[in-house]
Design goal:
79% of the residues lie in helices and 0% in strands. The chain is mainly alpha-helical. The chain has a domain of 36 residues. It has 2 helices and no strands. It is found in: Cell membrane; Membrane. GO terms for molecular function: protein transmembrane transporter activity. Keywords: Cell membrane, Membrane, Protein transport, Translocation, Transmembrane, Transmembrane helix, Transport. Pfam families: SecE.
Length: 63
Amino acid sequence: MAFSPFKFLQEVRSETAKVTWPTRRETTITTIMVFVMVALASIFFFMSDLIIRNVVTFLLGVH
């Protein structure tokens, strides 16, 4: 099976034509959703860390 650069480029162009790019609005909404989820995850892990630290400190009797 021989490699044909011309055929490869034709296939790449064909596949690229099938790509649907998101609109500016979709990109903005998705970006905002990512920031919100990052903020929520940060709060969750901060609170989890705080609780675990307090429990471990209590159990070990360290002040």
